[in-house]
């Protein structure tokens, strides 16, 4: 997306809670997954939390890159494919995990590889929402989500005018 107006910063604590909430929701479906396929790199973090909660031990990656600079999506490149062991039956009982879906393009590519899999993301924007089966929080399309692994502690200017000293 290129017109980002709002920001949604997420702390480690909040991300852990949201990823755990996603695990609760997935557990509530009653389905058992034989493997998690996480979409790198963002999907690695929620995948670790969900795997811990659901007791999943078989973790696979699909390596997709698209956002080269902040908020500008380039051409999607698949750098590593999913093992044929998991794609052979279309991804039956496989859980795909990503941190978020924005335009839905990344999710669409991975869904094509595993049409029978369940797609879970912690956050979703409206355009990508139809591509996910389960998510926790929706933010507007013009919001940029700042993940804790991309953030650091910096000085914040005071809110009140003229109080900057
Ligand atoms: O729905 P889309 O518009 O396709 O965007 C969503 C994808 O963009 C980000 O990944 P990115 O390609 O930036 O790579 P990263 O996970 O390595 O940060 C994010 O982690 C999702 O995978
Ligand atoms: O809102 C976002 N935040 C971080 N990475 C992203 N990749 C696509 N959209 C986003
Ligand atoms: Mg990603």
From TrEMBL:
Xanthine binds at residues 102, 145. Coiled coil: none annotated. It catalyses: XMP + diphosphate = xanthine + 5-phospho-alpha-D-ribose 1-diphosphate; GMP + diphosphate = guanine + 5-phospho-alpha-D-ribose 1-diphosphate; IMP + diphosphate = hypoxanthine + 5-phospho-alpha-D-ribose 1-diphosphate. One of its GO terms (molecular function) is xanthine phosphoribosyltransferase activity. Keywords: Cell membrane, Glycosyltransferase, Magnesium, Membrane, Metal-binding, Purine salvage, Transferase. Its cofactor is Mg(2+). It holds the Pfam family Pribosyltran. Pathway: Purine metabolism; GMP biosynthesis via salvage pathway; GMP from guanine: step 1/1; Purine metabolism; XMP biosynthesis via salvage pathway; XMP from xanthine: step 1/1. It is found in: Cell membrane. Its EC number is 2.4.2.22. It is a peripheral membrane protein. Guanine binds at residues 102, 145. Mg(2+) binds at residue 99. GO terms for cellular component: plasma membrane. InterPro entries: PRTase-like (IPR029057), PRTase_dom (IPR000836), Xanthine_Guanine_PRibTrfase (IPR023747). Residues 11-155 form the Phosphoribosyltransferase domain. Belongs to the purine/pyrimidine phosphoribosyltransferase family. XGPT subfamily. Homotetramer. Purine salvage pathway enzyme that catalyzes the transfer of the ribosyl-5-phosphate group from 5-phospho-alpha-D-ribose 1-diphosphate (PRPP) to the N9 position of the 6-oxopurines guanine and xanthine to form the corresponding ribonucleotides GMP (guanosine 5'-monophosphate) and XMP (xanthosine 5'-monophosphate), with the release of PPi. To a lesser extent, also acts on hypoxanthine. This is Xanthine-guanine phosphoribosyltransferase. It comes from Fulvimarina manganoxydans.
């Amino acid at each position: 997306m290129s017109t980002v107006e709002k920001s949604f910063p997420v702390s480690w604590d909040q991300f852990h809670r949201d990823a755990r909430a996603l695990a609760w929701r997935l557990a509530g479906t009653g389905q058992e997954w034989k493997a998690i396929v996480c979409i790198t790199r963002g999907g690695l973090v929620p995948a670790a939390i969900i795997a811990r909660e659901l007791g999943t031990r078989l973790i696979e990656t699909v390596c997709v890159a698209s956002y080269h600079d902040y908020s500008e999506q380039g051409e999607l490149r698949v750098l590593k494919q999913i093992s044929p062991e998991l794609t052979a039956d279309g991804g039956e009982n496989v859980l795909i995990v990503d941190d978020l879906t924005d335009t839905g393009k990344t999710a669409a590519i991975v869904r094509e590889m595993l049409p029978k899999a369940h797609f879970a993301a912690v956050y979703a924007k409206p355009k990508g929402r139809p591509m996910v089966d389960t998510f926790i929080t929706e933010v507007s399309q013009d919001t940029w989500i700042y993940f804790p692994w991309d953030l650091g502690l910096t000085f914040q200017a005071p809110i009140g005018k003229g109080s900057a000293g």
